[in-house]
Design a protein that fits this description.
The longest helix is centred in the middle third of the chain and has 51 residues, at 218-268. 47% of the residues are buried. The chain has helices at 3-41, 54-79, 84-90, 103-118, 153-158, 161-177, 179-214, 218-268, 272-283, 319-326, 334-344, 347-350, 355-358, 397-410, 413-418, 422-433, 438-452, 454-466, 475-487, 491-506, 513-530, 547-560, 565-579, 595-605, 610-624, 632-644, and strands at 94-95, 125-129, 137-140, 148-152. The chain has four domains: 3-83 and 182-263, no CATH class; 85-177 and 267-358, Metalloproteases ("zincins"), catalytic domain (Zincin-like); 411-534, no CATH class; 543-653. By secondary structure, it is mostly helical. The chain is globular. 63% of the residues lie in helices and 2% in strands. Pfam families: Peptidase_M48 (PF01435). InterPro entries: HtpX_protease, Peptidase_M48.
Length: 657
């Protein structure tokens, strides 16, 4: 499967379906206009309207209907302006606390943290639907910076760690594909269309009650019965719009769910997890159904169907089709054995015996984008994960556990604890940005004390001393782990933190690459999290329009990934020739003060269209692999670039030294 071609097809189909949604709204407007013409043009209902006044009347009705739908949609979308958190809480989600001692919730947090860090995204807010026995989950938000992942209690009760990881990987693909923004807009459009039916019910109820008191008065009764008929007609028209809205909602969801299943395999490097979750949905009595009243509003963003929809309204492909796509060797009779096993044993016994141990797993290192996976963009090699033979299913697991064990042994537990709470996470972020040189540290401590006080400065100093015992590759995972706690800080304190981080790093005129990467990621993600609905959307620029920015970014990657100028020039030429084939380019040595221009270049490149970003990432990979190895410095720099472009980290960047 060519993942980028598949993404382009899905995005194109989604745009067409949104246009169809708009067409459905226009059809409702026409229906209302015809209704108004019929009611107001009939002599027994309000009197016949003179011909010259018909057009203004229809104009008013058109504007009124569009205003109602647009206003209600805008209101609904505005109510979700806080992003994923607002959607999760709207359906009854309860936050999973960072310091939870519940083994199931700890495992959930660890799985989500693993996939988030491996895919180069900040750890999202985590929510649980505690009263939902079905197996389901969803991701919501405007971007990765404000994303929330919500799972049902059924996921925790029935799924093994591998299966839970498969479900979470599926949801992360929605985060990285940009599906979440469209999902929130669809929620608003559906709400706008449903509002017309609500107004119709109110008019019908008022008209019907008034008519019952006025039926002896033929004239007045006739007029009031017109109100009643108008209300009934609006209900019918609203229902028609709602019907077509559901059809479009289902079609949008189905087209994206196919890609999300395949992307989950790319995340986890095995099909057993997500296929196992789908099999359990197939045999579980509750399946993936939800009980919450507004379940249909979020149906298009869920892992499985929230209700027993017919084929027209189903938001997901049939379960057996999804399973067969992942495991072509699957036979339907296998479900009977699984059903018998789940019926005879309590949920806890159906899970892997190693679940308790798995709950204690920690985070993979930042230099491991290829093991838990790197999402859809990880498939830039245009090669799909192998699923034709069962022997390919769990091949990378041993390597995964080795990385997990290594990182768990190398990170002090109290640093992990510090990342869980807002104030200690603030101190940790500052500590990770501090220089290793004593003279610079003194100046940095004074800046921190001036900004936050002596108590915070003392905590930062202690944490800065402790980080020396931690592997350097663990800095960015800790920052990602601390992100949910940092988002809880008041906006004023967050702005002060970002200003202080910039000042702490800029004390040294030659900013280290590690410090630059840390501050760049924190600034970008925290600023987006402050105003989720203003997160960047897909750009429209083509690569030649950003040639200078491409040139600088490739030069930075080539310089920091090479041992000498000759190697850097060779790597840079490889990247530029792939980005701009046949174009003459001249190598220029990277200036010492490259950081500020580099920031501007990344912002410029974020406006590229999707296909241009693909070419750019492949060009950068050419520079990185020019010497045959991928260093931790190159992997970290590429991670920052991909995050700035709102892309996932490609699997080909897996560290080799």
């Amino acid at each position: 499967m060519d993942f980028f071609a598949e993404q382009a097809r899905v995005r194109s189909s989604s745009r067409v379906l949104v246009l169809l949604f708009i067409a459905a709204v226009l059809a409702m407007v026409i229906a209302v206009d015809m209704l108004v013409l019929l009611v107001f043009g009939h002599p027994r209902h309000f009197g016949r309207v003179p011909a010259p006044h018909i057009f203004p009347l229809l104009t008013i009705s058109t504007v009124a209907v569009l205003g109602v739908i647009t206003g209600c949609a805008w209101y609904r979308i505005s109510s979700l302006s806080e992003g994923g958190k607002a959607v999760a809480e709207d359906v009854g989600g309860q936050p999973v606390l960072p310091d939870t001692q519940d083994p199931q919730l700890r495992q959930l947090r660890n799985v989500i943290e693993e996939v988030a860090i491996a895919s180069g995204t900040p750890v999202p807010d985590i929510y649980l639907l505690p009263n939902e026995p079905g197996i389901n989950a969803f991701a919501a938000g405007y971007s990765a910076s404000d994303a929330a992942i919500c799972v049902t209690q059924g996921c925790l009760d029935h799924l093994t760690r591998d299966e839970l990881q498969g479900v979470i990987a599926h949801e992360f693909s929605h985060v990285l594909n940009g599906d979440m923004r469209l999902n929130i807009r669809l929620m608003g459009l559906l709400f706008g269309i449903m509002a017309l039916s609500v107004i119709g019910r109110q008019i019908a109820w008022t008209g019907g009650n008034s008519y019952s008191f006025s039926r002896d008065d033929d004239d007045n009764g006739g007029k009031l019965s017109g109100y009643f008929l108008l209300g009934i007609a609006l209900i019918v028209i609203g229902s028609i719009g709602h019907f077509f809205g559901r059809l479009i909602q289902a079609a949008v969801a189905r087209s994206r769910e196919e890609l999300a299943d395949a992307s989950a395999v790319q995340f986890t490097r095995q099909t057993r997890g997500i296929a196992g979750a789908l099999k359990k949905i197939a045999v579980l009595e509750e399946g993936s159904r939800l009980q919450t009243a507004n379940r249909h509003e979020v149906a298009h963003m869920m892992f499985g169907d929230v209700d027993d929809f017919n084929a027209w309204f189903a938001t997901h492909p049939p379960l057996l089709t999804r399973i067969h796509t992942l495991e072509p060797w699957f036979r339907e009779h296998e479900l009977a054995a699984l059903e018998a096993q789940m019926r005879e044993s309590p949920p806890a016994e159906n899970k892997e015996a190693s679940t308790k141990e798995s709950a204690d797993h920690f985070l993979p290192p930042l230099d491991w984008p290829g093991q838990v996976g790197a999402a859809v963009l990880a498939a830039q090699s245009s090669v799909a994960p192998k699923v034709a033979e069962p022997k390919d299913v769990a091949e990378p697991k041993d390597k995964v556990l080795q990385h997990v064990a290594t990182l768990q042994q190398g990170i002090p537990a109290h640093l992990t604890d510090a990342a869980r709470q807002p104030e200690s996470a603030l101190a940790l972020a500052l500590a990770l940005a501090m220089s290793a040189h004593d003279e610079l540290q003194l100046k940095q401590k004074r800046l921190i004390a001036n900004a936050f006080g002596d108590d915070v400065q003392s905590t930062v100093s202690k944490l800065a001393g402790d980080k020396a015992a931690m592997p350097s590759a663990s800095r960015m995972p800790l920052v990602s782990l601390a992100f949910p706690a940092l988002k809880q800080l008041p906006q004023g304190r967050l702005h002060t933190l970002l200003e202080t981080l910039d000042a702490v790093v800029s004390i040294d005129p030659l900013v280290s690459l590690d410090d630059y990467c840390l501050v760049r990621l924190l600034r970008m993600h925290l600023l987006e999290a402050m105003k989720p609905n203003r997160a960047p959307i897909d750009g429209q620029k083509k690569l030649p329009a950003c040639r200078d920015s491409v040139t600088l970014v490739c030069a930075v990657v080539a310089t920091y990934g090479s041992n000498d100028d000759a190697a850097a020039r060779r790597a840079w030429l490889l990247a530029m020739n792939q980005a701009f084939p046949g174009m003459t380019v001249n190598w220029q040595t990277l200036p010492l003060d490259w950081q500020t221009p580099f920031d501007r270049a990344l912002d410029d490149l974020d406006d590229l269209m999707h296909a241009a970003k693909e070419i750019l990432i492949q060009s950068l990979l050419s520079a990185i692999r020019a010497d045959g190895v991928v260093t931790s410095t190159e992997a970290e720099l590429l991670r920052v670039i991909c995050a700035s472009l709102h892309c996932a980290v490609p699997a080909q960047a897996e560290i080799s030294t």
